[in-house]
């Protein structure tokens, strides 16, 4: 197994762990904090002020905030690898 594949798996695992942690944090916030107003994903989509609503909001927000730059890194690194190999 090449180090490139191990690196990709590590980054993907870290991404999944961070998104899961954000979902758990949202669930715990919705469970133990009272008087919260409903969150709005991307300022447009309302989520209910329940533990599951906050879990979904937290996980989706972190997935988007980390996912977009991660996609750019993957695309740029693939193009750099292609340019270096002469394709």
Provide a short characterization of the protein structure.
This protein has one domain. The protein is built from two helices and two strands.
General description of the model:
The chain has 87 residues and is mainly alpha-helical. The protein has one domain (3-85). It has helices at residues 3-32, 51-85; strands spanning 40-41, 45-46. 15% of the residues are buried. The model has no long low-confidence stretch (mean pLDDT 90).
How do the strands and helices of this protein lay out in sequence?
Elements: H1 3-32, E1 40-41, E2 45-46, H2 51-85
Antiparallel strand pairs: 1-2
Helix pairs in contact: 1-2
Can you tell me the residue ranges where pLDDT is under 50 for at least 5 consecutive residues?
A: none
SSE ordering: HEEH
Number of helices: 2
Coarse shape: elongated
Mean pLDDT: 90
The number of strands is 2
Number of domains: 1
Main structural class: mainly alpha
Question: What fraction strand?
Answer: under 5%
- Rg from C-alpha positions? 18 Å
Helix content: over 70%
Strand order of the largest sheet: 1-2
What is the terminal separation in angstroms? Answer: 23 Å
Largest sheet: 2 strands, antiparallel
Features:
two-stranded antiparallel ribbon, 2 strands, 87 residues, mainly alpha, membrane, 2 helices, Cox cluster protein, single chain
